[in-house]
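Hello,

Our lab assistant flagged a job as stuck in the queue for most of the afternoon. It eventually completed. Since we weren't sure the result was trustworthy after the delay, we are filing this so someone can double-check. Below is the sequence as submitted and the structure that was eventually returned. Let us know if re-running is recommended.
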Amino acid sequence: MKKFFHYINNEVLVKAANLNSANISVKIIAGILISKFIAVFIGPEGMALIGNLRNFLSTVQSIAIAGLYNGFVKLIGKCKNNLSELTNTLSTVFYLGFFSSVLLAFICYYNAEFINGLIFLNNNYTYVIETLAIVLPFYALNMFAFSIMNGFSKYRILLVINMTGQILGLLVTLLLIKQENIDGALIAVVITPALNLLITIVGIAFRKNLMSHIRITHINISVLRNLSPYMVMALVSSIALPIVYIIIRNYIISEIGIKEAGYWTAVTRVSDYYLMFINSLMALYILPRFAELKSRKEFRKEVFSFYKTVLPIFALILGIVYLSRGLLVNLLFTEEFRPIEDLFGYQILGDFIRVMSMVIAYKFLAKKMFTHFIIIEVFLFVIMYVSSVYLIDVFGLKGAVMGHCLSYFMYFGIVLLIFGSSLFGVLNDQGLDDY
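-- returned structure --
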């Protein structure tokens, strides 16, 4: 236990305190309150439709910024002291994000009825898609300013702005749900990211001298070439999974019922809450640490150190979640959601295997193994869809969480096959071979 807290204090919280811990806490509290309001005022049917809209919004947001966020932050960090490179980077990313978000906005707006049929099925919420299209460029602009501040390591102001946006979005969402029920909830989903325009305004004001360097004549193909691997990886992972979730949810609606789809959405929301912290921890420590490693021996040491220190604590938290699932249903939802208690077991087991896999799989990103990353991600999403549909046909709603669990078991197996020699193979004296 002492080793775990030493690990956290010295390696993680020092880096995370300024930006992540408080922000994620606010995000989780906001999510819990929103889930409660949805359960009370709308019910599981609304939960299912909102789940589809959230997944679709996640996809279009990623496409709107062309998957540029992570790569852009890294590139700013490298070239922030070189005015020429910084000008080329800012100009290229700004105009690429602007044109891609405006083009996508037009596509969504003029195909709103078709998109409505895909995510809302027989319900007519075309106006929600049209609203989403209108606010989409504002989201892209928000992320541009957000990336600049992150790249320049302005963590304190970023934290304050982000938390303010979370609280503002929470208040607007709760008010709309209470006043307009499902219509209010759907509109809140699409407008709250745009409410974070505060981030953009403050970001531009804070770095207004940079705006003069954003010129269309400074678009540089080499910047796109540097960013393209990050763009492809971000787009694959951030687009494929939400789309798979939409397909699975629609399959549940058509084969079992919309209420059952709402139950599945509810249990995945609970999963999202506890995964926020562990995902943040891994992104802050594991990814940069793996990028520094020079040998198999170091890689093996870091992976097993995480397994010995953090993973048991995570397992304990999951155990508590499982044992208190009845209390969690009362706290987060209503009595109508009581059937989701039967879904927690496979969902939690799948999440545990997911974290075990991700710790190793971060090497794909750290060492820029882009082809491996894309292939294994596509494999995961295909397996998740196939296994979920098959198991739903056999076991009903529980098959959806069984498919989630089975998918990550198989994903973990593939990751072990790829990195098995690094983790379990015989090392030479230096442990440098084939890292």
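-- support follow-up --
The delay was a queue issue, not a problem with the job. The result is valid. The longest helix spans residues 155-195. The mean pLDDT is 80.
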